[in-house]
């Protein structure tokens, strides 16, 4: 070796060409994110649709909205819901996480996927399920009526909506809480236990305080989601006229008889004014939570805390939540899908039918919707993950101004209500000549979905990227690999598994998405979620039930296939 | 011409200064260790040489090529510096085989497949890894992984290899074997190596020269013998070995000899940096130089035996002197006596100014 | 069921006879229109009638005019309007035919010049109120009805006119509290239109509004929801429900009862027009003529289960049969500019707030 002359370092062109992919990625991302938002902002300062010849610039839209008592009532309702569901979801989610993650509760492997069910199912579908199951003449209400003479619950009030929203958002908290609990060593808990504390006491005074950053982040996340709620208040709020911000916006579609895009845009900007700071706050808290987790360091021995005589209570709690949050609505839908009509005095056996499914499968728009939904979840999801990965690489481990710009850029679509984002994309596709022919294709739907869920997808990717030790990349650098080569040959193979997991999660998100497609819906790009909104508004309950069941089954199949292939839902 | 020259290097993280004017040269075939406590900046210095950290002032030259010059805003990226870096954690790519891990550097340099095969096979054999080419990193022991990391850094013949705490991940027993083996390999292959370590024994065993860093500056540099036997400051003396310390006041300092008066004793030894009469001082002596005498005398201190510990290869005796303690080694146990006389031989004793 | 089969069978027989040529009674140069239509190959329809209900119509049309494919898009009337104006503003094609129950929106579009003038050979057979400027046509005859739950509402309680409806809610408030529904006039264009017309014909409308308030009425934007609630028993009464849907459902659903109000019954007619910028104008003409023809109307009054507007059609549901029951009390909403007035934002909002304050007054017990 000593006589061989030193090899020459590999030539790495430091030219514009090498920087091109990064620049292009950032440019495309920026356009896709900012164009729709710019349109909405512009529209909010007009007096008529922006393509209407008679439009004028003015603050009329904002004046109208701020003077409308319905708007303020909707704002108050949104706020109440958000607070209510946070107060329910966070303690419950934390407690469930503690029980599942730190104790010796049996049947965990069966229970865990069930806990995550509400996050696979569209909120439209869930709310509809509650109506059919626990509404004034829902299946369970009627049975309760028969059995004990009364059905002492209501689902159409704001408190009831808060409870339902809280229960169904438990998985959001659960995921972050378990992740944080995983990194705790069990010695702190054992110390409390030997001092005489019951498992729940240990949870309340030791484990949960230690994961406070993660819980704080989940609380802000759930609160933020409260402002975004659309499907749930649409289905449960309408009967009693309870409006929230998103349904108030939706109502504006027809309040004046003709489309009031300027009013809708103004409301959307108001919503963004609330949600964008929340999104920024989330980002800050997530960084804290991450830092906290690494400080806590590697877990020590992880010994499960024995529940002992508390086991029945813990199990009861878990099963009660499962019943209320999962079984009630899903069984409601399943039942409704198989009957022609229902209510007081109707015998279910007599009403059994497959007609609802026939209505779905014989109708080209519905079958198209099913096929499109599968496509957008699988292929669309894969392409979306590829895009997120490309953007992730453009910002990974680079702390320059561009990275920070992209970091904040991806937060923007998250703050815009899906409804308006879809509408904005419709406008973009209508009025940008290049894109026009693609409007009625699945591409427009896919693009809207990918942009709306940009922040979520980026977070998934960056979680995977963070798990690749910096040193592995540095080692490649010192050996002579350019950044591009490192991304392709070192980082990418190492995050393969994480990418598969991300694909699965994006698949499920796309499958349950519904508000974004509402205005984008055109013959040819129907998807189940948006179809459900349209069908619900049109009152075709039978088809809604059957299609909802199809949606749930699709997601379940996708999930089963992925899990079978060893993809893990969480790290 | 030196293989590596670093001059007046300054580096900071945000507002915190890490390196405050470091300079070093590395000649061909030399092993230089960067030694220091944690936070002294030694790893940062190594990474700066590799191109993974960016200083704001100073120059770095590899051979005759300037890879960093703060004044000219010249900063050659790490991937173009053609150095070899062995990470503390080895950083082997888990998705590649051992062969592919080692071959990567040659692949980047455009060698033909046949060339790669020859070079990699040879590198693996030189490091006794010949049969492990098709295994994956997780299937290897720590020691083997370290050798793979070395092979990967060496296979493309970089002028300088940089090693970040190469032995700290190994068990204590293996460490002793490894440091001998590593030095032998470096010498045999006539490599130029810059090594970071926090263990002074390791540094002395492996290096031709040691640079002791403190607070981002080089406190002293020299051969191991110079560093150990001739520390220029209190810090260096303290860091390089196991010592006894006695505090007191310097009453005399003349012609390189100083006298320190302490609590019930007075000792004379070599005057070191800053030793001057009338200032507080510290007398320092290596533990192994302390002798136990029978009777009082010059540089002997009366002391009470606190305890004797048996460590296997020797005894360690602990004495109480006024408010301080002294340690001494011995072959056999000491019988209890009223008083012992602990001798600090004058030629082995250093007197420093306190705080130097 | 048998009647349906018979109707279908007759239509098929007729279809084969006509499959090749110009429909009977049409001008000879219609063949040119037909040829052009076949060359265009398809007609794109935006319609508020759901696809499932429209299936028989589409199938019949395609068998009558092979070579012209129907691209049928159902969406609610507001969506239709929004999409139409956005598409025409951006110069992008889209609908050839607009067919909506939002009569006012349709007329507005015609007034804005978005419709193509077409002298349909069938137009003369329609009642005069159903033809507008030769650019738009009313195609159906759908009454606004009351619905009730047969199991839970006693026979003597069932209201048969508007005054009785108000009186029922006033007197038996306890029973009907929270269990009466109607359209949300803020969300449903059809619902809004209905109550505006109600105000025209019913002097006691304010009392009815107060009664709604007292009975804590529930509002919906879709007929299906209203029918569902009343059928299941969650609600007991429904007001101004679109009769086509109600009557069809009542056939299958033993729980649902339907009342055609005796004092006056509003009748809605789905308005159709051909888009000026239609990409397939000839196919659109052929479709329009088909819908207005006896054959199309027979389908509408039969398998499609809406009401045919033409009086000279023999089918299960026709204007004629309805008029026989209602006589002079049938009040069809005219396809004309007079219904566009309330699309003015100020006027509309004033009406809505007046409505709301009456509701609130009723709820407060005034």
Kindly describe this structure.
The complex is a heterotrimer of chains A (571), B (356) and C (366). Chain A is mainly α. Chain A has 28 helices and no strands. Chain A has helices at residues 16-44, 60-67, 69-102, 108-115, 123-134, 139-148, 158-168, 170-182, 187-194, 199-210, 212-228, 231-237, 245-255, 261-296, 311-337, 348-351, 355-361, 364-395, 401-409, 412-415, 418-431, 442-452, 454-466, 470-479, 483-494, 496-512, 528-538, 541-564. Chain A is globular, with a radius of gyration of 25 Å. The two termini of chain A are 44 Å apart. Chain B is of the alpha+beta class. Helix content of chain B is 24%, strand content 37%. Chain B has a 6-stranded mixed sheet, sandwiched between helices. The two termini of chain B are 35 Å apart. The termini of chain C are far apart. In chain C, 46% of the residues lie in helices and 16% in strands. With 366 residues, chain C is an alpha/beta fold. Chain C is built from 15 helices and 13 strands. The chains are: A mainly alpha (571), B alpha+beta (356), C alpha/beta (366). Chains in contact: A-B, A-C.
At a glance:
The complex is a heterotrimer of chains A (571), B (356) and C (366). Chain A is mainly α and 571 residues long.
Secondary structure class of chain B reads alpha+beta
Order of helices and strands of chain B: EEEHEEEEHHHEHEHEEHHEEEEEEEEEE
Oligomer: heterotrimer
Helix content of chain B: 10-25%
Stretches of chain A where pLDDT is under 50 for at least 5 consecutive residues are 1-6, 294-299
Largest sheet of chain B: 6 strands, mixed
- Helical stretch tally of chain A: 28
Radius of gyration of chain A: 25 Å
Q: Mean of residue pLDDT of chain B?
A: 90
Order of helices and strands of chain A: HHHHHHHHHHHHHHHHHHHHHHHHHHHH
Indicate the overall shape of chain A: globular
Number of strands of chain B: 21
Give helix % range of chain A.
over 70%
State the helix count of chain B.
8
How large is the share of residues in beta strands of chain B?
35-45%
Q: How large is the radius of gyration of chain B?
A: 25 Å
Distance between the termini of chain A: 44 Å
User: By helix and strand content of chain A, what is the structural category?
Assistant: mainly alpha
Describe the largest sheet of chain A.
Answer: none
């Amino acid at each position: 070796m000593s006589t061989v002359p030193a090899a020459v370092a590999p030539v790495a062109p430091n030219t514009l060409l090498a920087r091109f992919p990064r620049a292009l990625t950032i440019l495309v991302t920026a356009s896709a994110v900012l164009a729709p938002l710019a349109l909405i902002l512009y529209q909010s300062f007009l007096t008529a649709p922006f393509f209407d010849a008679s439009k004028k610039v003015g603050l009329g839209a904002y004046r109208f909205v701020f003077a409308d008592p319905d708007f303020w009532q909707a704002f108050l309702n949104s706020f109440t819901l958000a607070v209510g569901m946070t107060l329910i979801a966070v303690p419950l989610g934390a407690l469930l996480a503690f029980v599942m993650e730190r104790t010796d509760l049996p049947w965990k492997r069966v229970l865990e996927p069930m806990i995550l069910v509400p996050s696979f199912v569209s909120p439209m579908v869930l709310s509809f399920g509650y109506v059919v199951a626990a509404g004034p003449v829902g299946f369970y209400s009627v049975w309760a009526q028969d059995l004990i003479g009364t059905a002492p619950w209501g689902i159409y009030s704001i408190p009831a909506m808060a409870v339902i929203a809280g229960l169904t958002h438990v998985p959001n908290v659960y995921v972050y809480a378990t992740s944080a609990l995983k990194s705790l060593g069990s010695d702190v808990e054992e110390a409390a236990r030997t001092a005489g504390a019951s498992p729940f006491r240990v949870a309340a005074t030791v484990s949960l305080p230690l994961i406070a950053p993660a819980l704080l982040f989940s609380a802000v996340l759930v609160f933020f989601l409260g402002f975004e709620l659309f499907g749930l208040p649409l289905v449960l709020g309408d009967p009693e006229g309870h409006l929230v911000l998103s349904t108030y916006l939706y109502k504006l579609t027809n309040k004046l008889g003709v489309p009031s895009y300027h009013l809708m845009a103004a409301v959307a900007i108001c919503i963004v004014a609330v949600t964008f700071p929340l999104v920024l706050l989330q980002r800050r808290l997530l960084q804290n939570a991450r830092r906290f987790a690494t400080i806590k360091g590697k877990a020590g021995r992880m010994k499960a805390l024995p529940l002992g005589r508390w086991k029945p209570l813990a199990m009861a709690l878990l099963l009660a939540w499962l019943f209320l949050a999962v079984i009630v609505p899903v069984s409601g839908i399943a039942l409704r899908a198989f009957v022609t009509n229902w209510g007081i005095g109707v015998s279910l056996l007599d009403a059994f039918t497959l007609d609802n499914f026939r209505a779905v499968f014989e109708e080209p728009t519905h079958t198209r919707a099913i096929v499109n939904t599968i496509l957008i979840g699988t292929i669309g999801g894969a392409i979306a993950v590829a895009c997120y990965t490309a953007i992730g690489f453009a910002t990974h481990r680079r702390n320059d101004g561009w990275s920070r710009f992209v970091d904040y850029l991806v937060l923007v679509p998250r703050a815009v209500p899906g409804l308006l984002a879809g509408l904005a994309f419709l406008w973009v596709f209508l009025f940008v000549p290049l894109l026009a022919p693609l409007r009625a294709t699945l591409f427009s739907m896919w693009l809207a979905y990918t942009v709306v869920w940009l922040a979520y997808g980026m977070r998934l990717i960056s979680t995977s990227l963070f798990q690749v030790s910096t040193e592995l990349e540095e080692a490649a650098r010192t050996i002579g690999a350019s950044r591009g080569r490192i991304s392709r040959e070192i980082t990418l193979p190492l995050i393969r598994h994480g990418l598969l997991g991300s694909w699965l999660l994006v698949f499920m998100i796309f499958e349950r998405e519904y508000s974004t497609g509402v205005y984008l819906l055109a013959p040819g790009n129907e998807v189940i979620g948006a179809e459900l909104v349209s069908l619900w508004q049109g009152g075709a309950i039978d088809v809604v039930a059957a299609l909802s069941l199809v949606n749930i089954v699709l997601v379940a199949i996708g999930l089963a296939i992925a899990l079978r292939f060893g993809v893990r839902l969480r790290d | 011409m030196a293989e590596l020259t670093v001059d007046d290097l300054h580096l900071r993280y945000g507002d915190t200064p890490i390196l405050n004017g470091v300079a070093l040269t590395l000649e061909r075939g030399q092993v230089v260790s960067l030694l220091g406590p944690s936070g002294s900046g030694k790893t940062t210095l190594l990474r700066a040489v590799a191109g993974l950290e960016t200083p704001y002032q100073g120059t770095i030259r590899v051979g005759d090529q300037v890879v960093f010059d703060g004044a000219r805003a010249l900063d050659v990226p790490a991937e173009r510096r053609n150095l070899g870096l062995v990470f503390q954690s080895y950083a082997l790519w888990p998705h590649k085989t051992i062969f592919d891990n080692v071959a990567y550097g040659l692949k980047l340099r455009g060698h033909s497949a046949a060339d790669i095969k020859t070079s990699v096979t040879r590198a693996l054999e030189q490091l006794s890894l010949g049969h492990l080419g098709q295994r994956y990193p997780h299937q290897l022991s720590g020691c083997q992984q370290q050798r793979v990391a070395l092979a990967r850094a060496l296979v493309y013949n970089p002028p300088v290899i940089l090693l970040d705490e190469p032995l700290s991940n190994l068990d204590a027993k293996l460490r002793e074997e490894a440091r001998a083996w590593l030095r032998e390999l470096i010498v045999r292959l006539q490599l130029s190596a810059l090594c970071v370590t926090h263990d002074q024994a390791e540094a002395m065993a492996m290096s031709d020269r040691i640079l002791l860093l403190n607070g981002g500056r080089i406190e002293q540099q020299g051969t191991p013998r110079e560093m150990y036997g001739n520390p220029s400051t209190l810090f260096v003396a303290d860091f390089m070995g196991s010592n006894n310390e006695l505090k007191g006041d310097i009453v005399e300092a003349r012609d390189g000899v100083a006298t320190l008066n302490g609590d019930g004793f007075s000792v004379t030894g070599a005057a070191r940096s800053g030793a001057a009469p009338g200032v507080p001082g510290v007398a320092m002596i290596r533990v192994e130089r302390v002798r136990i005498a029978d009777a009082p005398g010059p540089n002997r201190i009366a002391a009470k035996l606190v305890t004797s510990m048996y460590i296997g290869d020797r005894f360690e005796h602990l004495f109480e002197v006024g408010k301080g303690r002294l340690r001494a080694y011995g072959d056999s146990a000491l019988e209890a006596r009223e008083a012992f006389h602990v001798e600090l031989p004058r030629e082995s004793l250093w007197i420093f100014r306190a705080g130097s | 069921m048998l009647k349906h089969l018979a109707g279908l069978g007759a239509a098929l027989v007729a279809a084969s006879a006509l499959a090749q040529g110009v429909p009977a009674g049409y001008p000879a140069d219609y063949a040119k229109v037909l040829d052009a239509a076949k060359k265009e190959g398809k007609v794109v329809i935006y319609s508020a009638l759901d696809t499932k209900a429209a299936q028989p119509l589409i199938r019949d049309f395609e068998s009558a005019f092979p070579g012209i494919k129907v691209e049928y898009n159902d969406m609610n009337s507001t969506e239709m309007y929004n999409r139409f104006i956005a598409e025409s503003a951006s110069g992008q094609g889209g609908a050839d035919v607009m067919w909506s129950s939002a009569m006012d929106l349709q007329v507005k579009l015609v007034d804005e010049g978005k419709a193509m003038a077409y002298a349909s050979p069938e137009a003369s057979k329609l009642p005069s109120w159903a033809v507008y400027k030769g650019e738009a046509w009313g195609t159906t005859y759908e009454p606004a009805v009351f619905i009730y739950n047969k199991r839970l509402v006693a026979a003597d309680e069932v209201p048969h006119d508007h005054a009785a409806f108000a009186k029922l809610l006033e007197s038996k408030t306890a029973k009907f509290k929270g269990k009466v529904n109607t359209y949300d006039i803020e969300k449903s264009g059809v619902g809004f239109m209905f109550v505006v017309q109600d105000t025209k014909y019913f002097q006691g409308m304010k009392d009815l509004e107060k009664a709604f308030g007292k009975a804590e009425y529930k509002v919906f934007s879709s007929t299906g929801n209203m029918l569902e609630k009343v059928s299941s028993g969650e609600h007991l009464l429904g007001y101004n429900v679109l009769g086509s849907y109600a009557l069809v459902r009542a056939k299958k659903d033993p729980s649902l009862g339907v009342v055609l109000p005796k004092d006056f019954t509003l009748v809605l007619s789905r308005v159709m027009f051909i888009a000026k910028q239609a990409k397939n104008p000839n196919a659109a003409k052929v479709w329009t003529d088909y819908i207005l023809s006896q054959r199309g109307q027979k389908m509408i009054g039969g398998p499609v289960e809406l009401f045919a507007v033409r009086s000279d059609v023999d089918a299960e549901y026709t204007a004629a049969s309805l008029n026989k029951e209602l006589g002079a009390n049938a009040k069809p909403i005219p396809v004309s500019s007079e219904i566009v007035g309330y699309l003015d934002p100020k006027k509309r909002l004033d009406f809505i707030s007046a409505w709301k304050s009456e509701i609130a007054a009723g709820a407060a017990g005034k």
